[in-house]
Amino acid sequence: MIAKIFSCAVLGIDGFTIEVEVDISGGLPAFDLIGLPDPSVKEARERVRSAIRNSGFEFPLSRITVNLAPADIKKEGPAFDLAIAVAILIASGQIPYTQNLHHAVIVGELSLDGNLREIPGTLAIASSYANNNQPQTDLFVPACNAEEASLIKNIQVRGVESLEQMVDYLIGKLDIPITTPKPEQVNQNDQQILDMSEIKGQENAKRALEISAAGAHNLIFYGPPGTGKTMLARRLPTILPPPSLDEMLEITRVHSVAGKLPAGTPLITERPFRSPHHTSSMVGITGGGKIPRPGEVSLAHRGVLFLDELPEFNRELLETLRQPLEDRNVTITRSAATLQFPADFIFASSMNPCPCGNFGDPRHACRCSHYQIQRYRSRLSGPLLDRIDIQIEVPRMDYTDLEKPTAAENSATIRERVQKARLMQTHRLQGSNTITNSEMNPSQVKKYCALNTEGRALIKQAFNQLGMSMRAYNRILKVSRTIADLEGSENIETSHLAEAIQYRNLDRELFK
Length: 512
Ligand SMILES: Nc1ncnc2c1ncn2[C@@H]1O[C@H](COP(=O)(O)OP(=O)(O)OP(=O)(O)O)[C@@H](O)[C@H]1O
Ligand SMILES: [Mg+2]
Prior knowledge:
Largest sheet: 5 strands, parallel
Shape: elongated
Strand order of the largest sheet: 11-14-17-10-18
Number of strands: 18
Number of domains: 2
Bound molecules: adenosine-5'-triphosphate, magnesium ion
Distance between the termini: 76 Å
Radius of gyration: 28 Å
CATH topology of the largest domain: Rossmann fold
Helix content: 25-40%
Structural class: alpha/beta
Number of helices: 22
CATH superfamily of the largest domain: P-loop containing nucleotide triphosphate hydrolases
């Protein structure tokens, strides 16, 4: 007898329907899995066999063939277990095929005792059924994933505890209720306890951080050790506007596929801040692997990717950032398919001016040789630096800065200004896909970043003196647009432009 059940595979951040066909025929007992399964799927045989037995059913001693169709999608992971087990029970006549299976999609990993385990990517699976025109899908997922999947509208999600419970539902013995999303649970992390008011002095660096947040511009802090570069960058998320619901879903989807959704957090409600170590692997940063998973650039989607001590990172690894920084997504090519993960983040980084950190400091002698300094700086390529709009020095402070009685501004106050500036961008860019100034395409730059005569003369002079690239030119205009927005000015004044130009300091210093 043959039975067919629908399940779902995740490729990248999208779900694809998989038909699980089971045929049970006479002959010597065998259990074959076909349809381009990965070895991790083949292990399902052992789990399904034990789960069926331990749930009080019989595992048929016949020739069992499981086909996962279509064959051209590579299937990975344990998510087909539950669908295979149900199909075997139907094909062996132990339970009937019922009407409610017509529009059912079943996913879940079985443990040997028949209980269901958590699987990654249920939000991605649910999203891929939300927009189809067919009758509403009944999506069966492990109970611990149900809340996450239920965030998607237009789809009925039911959380299943075990194979036995699934069977009881199918034969009408009990109901598995539809999961309704709970009020948003806030993802508690240390971002909330960090605040800009903790940073003394460094007013220029704080201003740069505010501009970066307002227009989503990339930035780098450079300066001697212990001046607050890392401290400043870590507080960037505290002044960013909270994500919209759509953005929250995008962020959660990536984390869900990566299996990195914190326990008890069905929806991530804050912008991510990712700070990978410089020893991280290429796959860890950009994504990929045998079962392609999002890397740090995608986990930072809609938030901040912070690379501390930038020159310590492998140069080759830094070069791979060029593509996502430009395209705002990352492309992963594998033999079976080319996948794309979203990667729209603010790129923040820090560096010392030289290996000992004292180069250019009037009060400390630099111990590095010319060669060492050159080598250190050459790890950053010109093209990478070209993509960093705001390059700001964080110098050693004077003692008077430390003793200032006035308290520094807190994150909430700065965030208010950032939100006002973002609102101006939203109005201006309405109807396009662009959200922030940094994302404007060349025609939008031309339209919204017009300069007056004085401004044009100034940028011409800077363009020639700095030997600026077209990209740097466009980026300077975008930053000046943001500076004007922070001031509530519709026109870009010369002072706005001048400030934007001076943020390209490193271009001058490192690559002259
Ligand atoms: N401007 C500041 N206001 C208050 N505390 C500061 C400031 N700058 C540095 N600190 C203190 O010094 C510590 C080190 O700062 P931080 O790690 O940000 O330095 P850094 O510039 O990143 O140095 P390095 O180049 O060595 O990485 C912080 O944890 C903080 O306690
Ligand atoms: Mg640091």
